From TrEMBL:
Domain Fatty acid desaturase: from-to ranges: 67-343
Recorded GO CC terms: membrane
Coiled-coil stretches noted in the UniProt entry, renumbered to this chain: none
GO BP term (any one): lipid biosynthetic process
CDD domains for this protein: Delta6-FADS-like (cd03506)
TM region positions: 45-65, 214-233, 239-260
Keywords: Membrane, Transmembrane, Transmembrane helix
Name of the protein this chain belongs to: Linoleoyl-CoA desaturase
Gene Ontology MF: a single term: oxidoreductase activity, acting on paired donors, with oxidation of a pair of donors resulting in the reduction of molecular oxygen to two molecules of water
Amino acid sequence: MYPTRIKFNRADRPEFVAELKRRVNNYFKENNITKYGNNQMKIKTVFMISLYMSPLVLMLSGVITNVWVMLGMWALMGFGMSGVGLSIMHDANHGSYSNNRKTNDFVSKVLYLVGGYPLNWRIQHNLLHHTYTNIHDHDEDLGQGFIRMSPNQKRKWVHRFQFIYAPLSYTLMTIYWSTSKDFQQVLRYHKKDLLKTQNITLTRALIEIAVSKVVYVLLFVALPIVLLPFAWWQVMLGYILMHAICGLFLALIFQCAHVVEEALFFKVDDENEGSMENNFAIHQMKTTTNFANNSTFFSWFIGGLNYQIEHHLFPNICHIHYKQISKIVKATAEEYDIPYHEKRTFVGALKSHFSILFNLGNGRYDKKHEAPKLQKVAS
């Protein structure tokens, strides 16, 4: 698989792309503000890390003696863990947290605290997902096997029940992430020569992953089991609860942006000669959906990722600006007759997500939603 061979159509309405960029750039210039994070991001960083780590510190200090309060602390950590991932490390790994590259690199390492590996995340998310959104066998954010998230995936008998078991599967996402996923990914990316894009060798990557996992387990598993005045299985129950909350929350936020009824899906006939009918920006708008844009606190907590259209068009702009530039994007899209998908509420997005899971699992996917296959580049 060589995803870089996919070619987007630069001749497809370039005037829309040029005008959109001009208007967004003018917004920052006219208001004399930076595209990166500001004091809001600093305050949010302190808040989210505190929400995640403070309950652990309280438990390790010995002030928590009731098992139900202990479980409540782990649950709170689950939301804190989500906030760290959605609102801090996400921007840092995109290079939009700060205009200082070293600052972005430093803050991106907060991903180690939630059991992940920044390098793998950048390859999967920045390179594969953002570049090849909803393209079968290229966008790794689409499910493989157990959950059918695209009409281009082979349908199996178990998929008919996926709208029921999907939430349970989502709860396991960060546990899998913090244990074996990074090792499997880095080996796969090595075979595809994708590690070269991050200027790192396989040996170094494996060492970094191994060391980070050991430290993570010592801090979040071993220390609580040894120091907390509870049975080991009670502590592990709390640990699993934290991951279940975080995994479910993260999965639903991201899936409601791309695996919904309005989004289109694509497949490459020949992976070495794939050519898109649309330019990159329009492809992003056809495969992405916003939701709950009027919910201030919800948007703040999830790092503005309910503005997924703006995020995919301008990933190098900090999420604190998405609400304002969304007005520009929507107006420009309407002017050029480009689709701008949005759900009024998060509940509406969830309904759409589970509806498409049901239809995909039962072979009832409406063909009008399916994009045509990509054509080969003329020789």
